[in-house]
Write the structure tokens for this entry.
Amino acid sequence: MEPLIIEGTAKTPTVNFNASEGLIEIKGRSIPENSIEFYKPLVDWLEEYSKSPAPHTTVNIQLEYFNTSSSKCILDVFKKLEAIYKNKNDVKINWYYEEDDEDMLEAGEDYESIIRVPFNMIEIVD
């Protein structure tokens, strides 16, 4: 399965989905003009990945900021990961947040309360 790599911009996050390594990363800012359009390839890729996932899937989410429409799309990504996890696959989500960014910590905790996948809250200390 081909990796999905999208270079980040001022409005969109860097995406690195690598099936052979079981690595899924989203980093940066997520305020695209059309969130659904931006996230559709990610959700489609995960749908394909779910058919034969790596033994261990590590998800690194390190967002500085995301808008409301992105939050729904991120939830869709997490729901695909939850389906993989429910099929007895090892999935871990690492949610990174800056040490003084209460909003990003809360956002991670909100997702953690909705999605039945192990979350690690990881504080980034400068």
